Amino acid sequence: MTDVAEAARANLAQTALPLPTGYAKGSSAMWRIYQYPLCPFSRKVRFALAVKGVTLELVREYPWDGRDGFAALNPACQTPVVQNGSIVLSDSATICDYFEETIERVPLLGAGPEERAEARRLIAWFDQKFYAEVNAPLLGERMYKRIISRQPPEASVVRAAARAAEGHLDYLDFLLDRRRWLSGPAFGLADIAAAAQISVADYLGGIEWDGHEPAKTWYSALKSRPTFRPLLGERMEGLQPPAHYDKLDF
Q: Largest Cα–Cα distance of the chain, in whole Å?
């Protein structure tokens, strides 16, 4: 059996135990997250865990490097991965579910089954639909081609992603005209998932805020949160965001 396969088997066999905030049970080790600044799923996990009061040690990991040590942690070679001693968790939905179950303070999925179902629907919307239509093409054209493969972006792909982003902002406006927060009366994981994806698209110049006042007001409120602002302060080497990116008045 290969080292990667052995590591994957060990991950499947481990039993996750409830933990005090930020620490592994019976140890002083802190949670570590393998991530890079423009990974929207890493942003989602970091924002959610900051809201829950979990302290993370940041480890810069570029999945396209194919590092053997990272593949041993997650054979899929995708960020984020969080680790605390022998506990290794991957996939942003799995990670958020784990901490929602093990840390009771600041529940993020809503008060009842209907609200939780709506939160999960919107989380999937942004993790899957928004990412596929907006961030995957933007990351490919404006990040990967620029700093990794050194190729010019395909303008038609960037324009299609911007058009898709416009449609998603229209849907945000529709929801926020009817609700205080995306999935209901309380801030939660749907807002976190949406903000994570939108912030990456905004960094890459794919968001046009004009004409989307409800979405803009909602996002401005999130940008002012101390649990979210550190994400906006980080930069990807060789790639700067638009001037408005981290400003509260934008």
A: 57
CA distance 246 to 131: 21
Q: Give the pTM.
A: 0.88
Which of 14-18, 26-30, 201-205 comes out lowest in average pLDDT?
14-18
pLDDT of residue 3: 45
pLDDT tens, position by position, 143-186: 999 999 999 999 999 999 999 999 999 999 999 999 999 999 99
CA–CA distance, 232 with 31 (Å, rounded to integer): 21
Alpha helices in the chain (DSSP H): 3-13, 40-51, 68-73, 92-102, 113-124, 136-138, 145-147, 155-176, 189-203, 213-223, 229-232
What backbone torsions phi and psi does residue 89 show, to the nearest 5 degrees?
Answer: -125, 135
Q: Determine phi and psi for 248, rounding to 5 degrees.
A: -75, -35
Angle between helices 213-223 and 155-176 (to 10 degrees): 90
Is residue 33 within 8 Å of residue 81, measured between CB atoms? yes
Ordered by where they begin, the domains of the chain are 3-102 (3.40.30.10), 113-232 (1.20.1050.10)
Residue whose pair of structure tokens reads 């409830």 in the numeric block: 18
Q: How far apart are CA 195 and CA 168, in angstroms?
A: 12
Task: Look up tokens 């890459």; give the residue.
Answer: 204
Give the DSSP letter of residue 79. S
Contact (CB, 8 A) for 183 and 122: yes
Q: What is the pLDDT of residue 4?
A: 40
pLDDT of residue 29: 59
